[in-house]
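Entry 14. Structure prediction run on the chain below.
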Amino acid sequence: MFFDEMIETHNMVYWYPVQQHLRFTQCIKQGNVYIFEDIISEIIHSIKQKNVSIGMTRSICFGMINTVIEVLNELNMDNFEKDIESGLNIG
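Output returned:
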C-alpha cells in the first residue's frame, strides 16, 4: 500500500477532508492570506471534532508545514528557510 492510498480514503485525508487540503494548497499558491486563515480555522475545527490525539495533531501540523514547503519549492521561492526556522523556534 502506498502512502497516498493510506491517507486518502473515502474523499478524506486521514485528519480532514481532501477538499480542504486542496483549498489549502491553492491558497498558498495564490498567496490569498484571508482564505488561507479561514481554511486553517476549518481544518482546526475538523481536528477538534474528531478528538484527534496530541501526537496525531502534531503530525497533521507537520504535514501542513511540509505542504507549504512543497508549494514554495514548486514555485521556486527562495529565502524562505529563515522564516520557517524562526517560526519553528518559537518559545
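The chain has one domain: 3-88.
Filed with the rest of this week's runs.
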